[in-house]
Amino acid sequence: MTVKAFELSEFYCRLKNYVLSVILSTQRCNMIDKYIGEFNCLKQLQKNMIKQIQLLGMTIPNYSLREELQIAQQALGDAGLRLFLTVSMQSLVKVSSSESQQIRECVEQADLVVVEDPEILSVAGINSSQRIHEAEDHLFFTELLKRLQRGQQQIYLVASKDAALEKIKEILADRYEKLNIVGQYSIEDYPDDLDRMTNEINSAAPDVIISVMPTPEQEQFLVDNRSKLMAKMWYGLGENYSLLMEKKGFGWRMKRLIHFGRFKMHVNHYEESE
C-alpha cells in the first residue's frame, strides 16, 4: 500500500469513527430528552395527586407516609394535644351512620387521619400504588412506633375492655419491647367515671396516648374530654388494631373481602340517597 493510499484509508477510518460518535451523541441527547420528559410528567403527576379523600359526605386529607411522619414529628415537639385517628372501612361506616355531627367533625378535623384499609383509597378514586402500599402494610404505624421507641417518649395505653388492653400490651411487647409505657387504663373498670380516666392519664404525664377504643365511643370521649388531656398526641388505632399485626393468609383475605363488600354496599347506598 502506498503512503497516499494509507493516508486515505486512515482518513476514512477517522471519518467513520466521527460519524459514529455523532450518531451516538444524538442518541444520547434523545435519551436525555426522553428522561427529562418522563421526569417532568412524574413531577406533574405528583403535583396533581389527589390530596383529599371525599367519601360518605366527609373530607379528610390524603397525605403520603413521609408527610404523615413529618406531622407526627411536629406534634411531638409542640404543645397541646394532637389527634391522630386511624380509619378502617368499618369505622367509616360507623361514623357516617352516626346521628351526631360532632362525631363526624371529630374525624374530619383530626390533625391526622391514617387510612388503615387500601380499599378506602380505591373506592375514593385514589389509585396511587405508593399510597395503597403504605396503607396495606400499615407503614405509618410501624414507622411511628419505631420512632417512639427510639425517642423513648412516654406512652399511655387506653381501652374500653380489659381484654383489649391486655391484647394491645401483648402485641406491643412482642414487636416493640423497648417502648416506654408509663401507664394503662380500661374503661371497663369504671364505666361511669370518665373523669377518673382523664385524671389517671394526666397523672402519668405521657407524651403519647395510644387508644384501642372502638368508634364512635372513642370520638365521643374526645369531643367531651380533649381539652382536659395533658399529652402531645392521641393515637387512636381503633378496635381492629390486631389486624395491623395479622399475617396475610387466607383468613385475613376473607375478612377483608367481607368488610369490603359491606363497605362498598354502604357507600353505594349513601351515594344513591344523596
Give a structural overview.
Helix 8 links the parallel strand 5 and strand 6 (180-186). The chain has helices spanning 3-47, 65-77, 89-97, 101-108, 118-123, 129-136, 139-151, 162-175, 194-204, 217-225, 250-273, and strands spanning 52-55, 58-61, 82-87, 112-115, 154-159, 180-186, 208-211, 233-236. Helices cover 58% and strands 14% of the residues. The protein is an alpha/beta fold and 274 residues long. It contains 11 helices and 8 strands. The strands form 2 sheets. Strands 4-3-8-7-5-6 form a 6-stranded parallel beta sheet, with helices on both faces. A two-stranded antiparallel sheet has the order 1-2. Helix 2 (65-77) packs parallel to helix 7 (139-151) and helix 4 packs across helix 10 (217-225).
Topology:
Elements lengths: L2 H45 L4 E4 L2 E4 L3 H13 L4 E6 L1 H9 L3 H8 L3 E4 L2 H6 L5 H8 L2 H13 L2 E6 L2 H14 L4 E7 L7 H11 L3 E4 L5 H9 L7 E4 L13 H24 L1
Parallel strand pairs: 3-4, 3-8, 5-6, 5-7, 7-8
Antiparallel strand pairs: 1-2
